Structures are given as structure tokens and as C-alpha cells.
Amino acid sequence: MRHVLIFVVVVVASALIGGAASSTSIDVHANRRIGALFVGDTDRHTCTAESVHSRSGDLVLTAAHCLTGETGPITYVPAYRVSQAPFGEWTVTSVYLDPGWLTGQDVNRDYAVLRVRSDPTTAHRTLESVTGRGFTVGSFGIGRAVRVVGYGAGSGDTPIGCRGRTREARDSPTVTCRGLVDGTSGSPWMTGRTTTIGLVGGYNQGGCVSFISHSPVFDSDLTALIARADDGGPGDTAPSTGAAVC
Fold first, then answer.
1. pLDDT tens digit sequence for 6-22
2. Which helix (H) or strand (E) is 66 found in, with range?
3. Which residues constitute the signal peptide according to the record (predicted)?
4. Into how many domains does the chain fold?
5. DSSP structural state of residue 168
6. Any idea what the CATH number is for the domain that residue 160 is in?
7. How many Å from the N-terminal Cα to the C-terminal Cα in the chain?
8. In 122-160, which positions are buried (b, 16+ CB within 10 angstroms) versus exposed (e)?
9. Are 160 and 23 in contact (CB under 8 A)?
10. How far is Cα 134 from Cα 127, in angstroms, rounded to an integer?
11. Residue 245 counted as domain residue
């Protein structure tokens, strides 16, 4: 997961690195397309995920490194806030990973598509029929204004968000957007209300300081992975990967 350094280090690094203008993260309204991801047998969420539009209506997207070494249940809770699940709890039934991540943990393929199943409170409806049309996946571009929304790790009850402008660093999509702490891995980079062009992940599992975040590359490989998940075939087993090197 992304890491956070102490305030003094952040201030010094900010002065040295610079970068695009950014906002500081603040509590934001819960978004029905974005939710907390509970990985393993725990009541503490560890990552963020978001629904993506599909024929089946039951797909969500997150960072692949969020699934490292986990064999227990995975649960997605859209619009999670104050320990409530206003749109139900959704069990992940299959995980789909890019071959580049499976074989070598290519940081630009650090994304996972998850197929989910409703709990009884949703009367077995699809995710998109409950929360609305999922995000459309767009292509990354330099100089794009984005809004990032996600959940800090643990039992934090409110989503946080910030705004920034995209650039490229370390050969990876990058955004300067302050306050994206541990747990915001998987958070969408939104252009407008319905399109995502990146997510917190990729290089160093999203970054080593809270004001600079990275993303895997959104391109035809991700589109193909979404299509494979939408077809409902066999899923993949997440490989074990090391911690971010910061």
C-alpha cells in the first residue's frame, strides 16, 4: 500500500520536488461508485475500489497490489460512511489480473478487476442496478485535471479527496494531490463525474509520500481485462509481492 512519511519529511520533499499545484485532502461526500475494500477476514478496510461499467453490471476496479497474499474473503462496500453500507455489502467472487502483473508485477499493470455478488439486502440485483452506471475507463493524458476520492486504511468512517493535475514521473502516470494516505490504493482519478483515467497504485504501490501519487497505465490491456472479467470466465490467483521500496 502507499506509504506516508512524517510531516517534516513531506514539507522538505515538497520544497525539493515541486510539481503541479495540488489541493489538500478533505473529508468528502460518499460516492456510490466508490467504496471501501475489506481484504481478508477483518473489519478494517485496507484499500479503495470503484465500480466500472460492464454488460454484467457486477465489476469493480482496484489496485492489484491490494490483493497480495490474501486468501480470505474480499468485500466491497460502495459509499461506505460511518460504518454503514447504504448500498449493501458485495462479496468478491472472482479476481482478474493482467498477465504482466501475474508474471512480473509490472507496475504499469497494477490493477485488478473484481466480479462481485450481492448480499441478500439487495435482492440479488446487479451492482450497477443498485449504485448506478459505473465509471467509464478512459486513457491517461498529461495535464488533465483530476479529482481523487478514497478511504484511509483502518476503520476510518469518511472518504477523503483532493484535486490535482496529471504529469509523468518515473515513467508512470503521476499526480500531485495532497493527503492520500495508506488505504487510498485503488482510488479512481476522475475527470468529470463518470470517467476514470487512473487509480492510486503502480510505481512503489502508489507512492512513498502523501502528496505524490502514481497510477498504472490505463490502455487497451485494461480494456481487454475488463472484457475478460465481463465474460465471467475463470479468475486468477494473486501472486505474492514485496512491499513498496521507499
1. 323 333 333 323 333 44
2. none
3. none
4. 1
5. E
6. 2.40.10.10
7. 11
8. beeebbbebbeebbebbebeeebebbbbbbbbeebeebb
9. no
10. 9
11. no
Contact indicator for 84, 40 with CB cutoff of 8 Å:
no
Q: Which residue has the cell 493524458?
A: 141
Q: Which three cell numbers stand for residue 102?
A: 501475474
Contact 26, 161 (CB under 8 A): yes
Contacts of 170 (CB under 8 A, 6+ apart): 203, 214
What backbone torsions phi and psi does residue 100 show, to the nearest 5 degrees?
-65, -30
Residue 2 lies inside a defined structural domain of this protein? no
In a domain, 236, yes or no: no
61 lies in which domain range? 7-231
CA dihedral 154, 155, 160, 166 (to 10 degrees): 20
| In a domain? residue 240 | no
